[in-house]
Amino acid sequence: MAEAVANKMQGPQGPKPKRIISGRNIVLYGFLIVAALYWLLPLYVMVVTSLKGLPEVRMGNIFSPPMEITFEPWVKAWDSACTGLYCEGLKVGFWNSIKILIPSTVISIIIASVNGYALSFWRFKGSEIFFTILLFGAFIPYQVMLYPLVIILRELGLFSSLGGVVLVHTIFGMPILTLLFRNYFAGVPDELFKAARVDGAGFWRIFFQIMLPMSLPIFVVAIILQVTGIWNDFLFGIIYAGTTNFPMTVQLNNIVNSTQGVKEYNVNMAATLLTGALPLIVYFVSGKLFVRGIAAGAVKG
User: Predicted confidence band at 299 (pLDDT cuts at 50, 70, 90)?
Assistant: First the structure.
């Protein structure tokens, strides 16, 4: 009885309740709302413009929703928009981008994951020098290497081909991916690796049976980085692909900057949204794993 009276005299127990409305929350959420509107407003303009007919676009009110929704600009952007001399839309560039994206992403991630694993647990004489060279390669501006790569691809017979673009993207993707995988594997406990060695496991068995099942987040990071970088690339595509192998971004540029006929802003907006759809879908599907993996692979080592 005396204990209950003493507890009542002490007052309420537990943590102090937080106020929902406070100066800090108003500033924080106000900034987030303004930032979100800043980034979403251009996207809104693109979407509503792409759903309008050309007469409505000419009225000039870019913020008003479409009075009559039409998907004709999307169909034209995909199937029949002119990209210079050819009026085949974005579909040809889309498949060229797919042919570039898949092998470039798969090959670079496979090589980089093995490199990062080897540099973390199977260090050899000169491995630190090798890693430093790779790290240095991650920060070389692409523009410095453009002309030497033209000469190399010409000598290899890969200039003006999809294979040449795949090779370039694979080479430039490996340094940063190797860094990410190496830092991620460096966070794996050494005891796990030593226990596997005691059990008689070798290089590839440890990699496939122990490291790979633990590495889903960093593989997602690598996939998103490569998909975004390769799909959005314009420079390598316009230089190394050749006129018959232009990726989607180059064809988008040709559609938007075309000087022939009437300027169809609704078709341009639809083409832009179609070009950017794939990286957005990949990121939204795997966003949580991306955050986990980038945090694990960027600060360890």
Answer: very low
Could you give the CA distance from residue 272 to residue 278 in angstroms, rounded to a whole number? 12
Q: Is residue 23 part of a domain?
A: no
Gap between the Cα atoms of 228 and 250, Å rounded: 15
**Alpha helices by DSSP H, 51-160:** 54-57, 72-79, 91-121, 127-137, 146-156
Residue 165 lies in a domain: yes
Nearest alpha carbon to residue 296 among 205, 204, 221: 221
Q: Are 233 and 246 in contact (CB under 8 A)?
A: no
Contact indicator for 286, 224 with CB cutoff of 8 Å: yes
If we measure between CA atoms, which residue out of 156, 162, 158 comes closest to residue 104? Answer: 162
Beta-carbon count within 10 A of 134 CB:
20
Residues near 161 by beta carbon (within 8 Å), at least 6 away in sequence: 241, 242, 245
Place of tokens 């691809």: 153
Question: For residue 73, with 0-12 CB atoms within 10 Å meaning exposed, 13-18 middle and 19 or more buried, which class applies?
Answer: buried
| DSSP string of 18-39, one letter each residue | PPSS-HHHHHHHHHHHHHHHHH
Which of 170, 177, 139 minimizes the C-alpha distance to 240?
Answer: 170
- Note the pTM of the prediction, 2 decimals: 0.82
The pLDDT confidence band at residue 120, using thresholds 50, 70 and 90, is confident
Run of H or E residues at 164: helix 162-186
Q: Domain with 137 in it: what CATH number?
A: 1.10.3720.10
Q: Which residue range(s) make up the domain with 111?
A: 91-245+272-298
CA dist., res. 136 & res. 140, Å (int): 7
pLDDT at 17: 60
Determine, yes or no, domain membership for 281: yes
Query: How many structural domains compose the chain?
Result: 1
